[in-house]
Amino acid sequence: MLYSFMWKDAMTARLAIPDNAAADERARVVTTAVLRAAASWQISKTVLARILGLSPASVTRLSAGGELRPGTKPYELGLLLLRLYRSLDAIMGGDRDLARQWLAAHNRALGGRPVDRITTIVGLTEAAAHVDAFRARV
Question: In the chain, how many domains are there?
């Protein structure tokens, strides 16, 4: 990545990251975080593909170094999945096994197992809102 320095005055400098470099960095970070969240929850590539609205082959390409591009629907769904992951992680105190149990258990408030519900945009949004609301009470 190519960075340049912009001089604010003779004594200080600040790093100027080109806009396209910043977008590339965001894409890399979000993609890596989404893949790690799915791995932490032991979500298969097929299920992750359904969550992100991609084909399983596209998720495999993400694992091989591809990226979710900012401004696309899969990128936005990835951000929503990360919101759910962070909130659930906070509620569960970082206990991944407990988070996986929550995802696999029937949830009356969500009308099904969260792992099944989050494969739709509505279900992912409802699950994130549900966990956020619960987290706010803690």
Answer: 1
